[in-house]
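Narrative of accomplishments. A recurring question from our advisory board has been how the design workflow behaves on a single, concrete structure rather than in aggregate. To address it, we present the structure tokens for one chain from the evaluation set, followed by the sequence designed for it. No filtering or post-editing was applied between the two.
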């Protein structure tokens, strides 16, 4: 199972119950996407408050020890298909590009995607989505 960035942020901020997330994941192996690591790194680098930046840095480092899914050429192919489907449905794929990369990784590896933002992934073919 891949956790969307919204799950990692929710856990870090305390806005999401770790028990609910663990229940949703069940016995599945949990992965973090290299895309999520990039999004979380942006959160660290753009933080002005030194204390908050230090907390975010520690959290990011702890996540880097988890199994990481990298982007491959197959991920790129899946992304193209998902972006085209999104565009055909009248939504702009540009707004959701990072979500599409993570969804493409889930499809490529046949993993479910756990997210707090189900609507962001609506109508994407081949994607199994869950919410805690």
């Amino acid at each position: 199972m891949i956790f969307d960035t919204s799950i990692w942020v929710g856990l870090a901020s305390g806005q999401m119950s770790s028990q609910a997330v663990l229940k949703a994941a069940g016995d599945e192996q949990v992965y973090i996407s290299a895309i999520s690591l990039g999004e979380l790194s942006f959160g660290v680098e753009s933080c002005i408050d030194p204390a908050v930046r230090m907390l975010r840095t520690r959290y990011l480092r702890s996540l880097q020890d988890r199994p990481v899914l990298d982007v491959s050429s197959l991920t790129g192919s899946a992304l193209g298909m998902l972006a085209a489907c999104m565009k055909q449905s009248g939504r702009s794929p540009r707004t959701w590009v990072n979500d599409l990369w993570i969804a493409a990784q889930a499809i490529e590896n046949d993993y479910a995607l756990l997210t707090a933002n189900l609507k962001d992934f609506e109508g994407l073919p081949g994607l199994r989505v869950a919410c805690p």
